[in-house]
């Protein structure tokens, strides 16, 4: 009797840690909100001039976004079933595709503002931006890899193509801060 109680308890604990596709879609929604906040902060920073406070607001938004991306990665790796259905894979890829133009806009914006960051009276902001870009890129790659890993074989090419486009945009931005 005691063994069966332990088994039931272990099953309940294991089930409570499983993630659903809806959980991942919710994570992507949170990422979208934070990505838009970051993009807005970048857009609000002038291409000439600017303040340390606005530069640090960009950094703060980047850190917050990275935390959300990391949570989505953890949830994606715990999804059940794995791989997800073709319909669910399509929903995940579509949700991620909505982020692509905002990611690219933010990355182009951060490159365009490099001279303004360099001109700030306190040094080190370009290095901080480069660090944020590297961290966000690493987090994004981990999420992309997690999404590809739970995608059924038939949808992997589409997921990989999306990953490659986003990774190329990050590579361009990171190179601008090298």
UniProtKB/TrEMBL annotation:
Renumbered to this chain, the signal peptide range is 1-18
Task: Look up the coiled coil feature and give its residue ranges.
Answer: none
Q: Which residues cross the membrane?
A: none
List UniProt keywords, sorted A-Z: Signal
Entry keyword Iron = no
Taken from the UniProt entry, a GO cellular component term is:
extracellular region
Q: Which domain of life is it from?
A: Eukaryota
Xref: InterPro entries: Cell_wall_mannoprotein_1 (IPR021054)
User: Which Pfam families does UniProt cross-reference here?
Assistant: HsbA
Q: What is this protein called?
A: Hydrophobic surface binding protein
Species source reads Tricholomella constricta
